[in-house]
Design a protein that fits this description.
The protein is α/β, with parallel strands linked by helices and 120 residues long. 38% of the residues lie in helices and 23% in strands. The chain has four helices and five strands. The protein has a five-stranded mixed β-sheet. α1 links the parallel β1 and β2. α1 packs across α4. GO terms for molecular function: antioxidant activity; oxidoreductase activity. This is Peroxiredoxin.
């Protein structure tokens, strides 16, 4: 998976962990809004940082998440982007330009506003 594969779409690029309470809180909001915005050209990529497939699969199944969950097992992307703390979300427009970086948990209203901002 590379971001260039999503050119033409808005990308809600979220970095998270199963052990992160704000991450767990915002995931259902993200999933509900993904159902609405995926048909409007917004993609969610929720990159798990440094955890096992089993831990992530259990989390995804428990919350019935429908968006893609790429894995950053070795924390290479985390280090490349200089991400700290979790959750951190990058808002990327259809041209691949990072419009904003949100550090910390988000409300459902926040997430919807951000998706409107990156909608092509």
């Amino acid at each position: 998976m590379e971001l260039k594969d999503y050119r033409g779409k808005g990308i809600f690029l979220n970095f998270w962990g199963t052990y992160c309470p704000p991450c767990e809180e915002e995931m259902p909001y993200m999933d509900r809004l993904y159902a609405k915005y995926k048909d409007e050209g917004v993609e969610i990529l929720a990159v798990n940082v440094g955890e096992s497939d089993l831990a992530v699969d259990r989390f995804v199944n428990r919350h019935d998440l429908s968006f893609p969950v790429p894995m950053d097992r070795e924390k290479e992307v985390l280090d490349l982007y200089g991400i700290n703390p979790l959750p951190t979300t990058f808002l990327v427009d259809k041209e691949g330009i990072v419009l904003d970086i949100i550090i910390g948990g988000m409300t459902e209203e926040n997430i919807e506003g951000y998706m409107e901002q990156i909608k092509p």
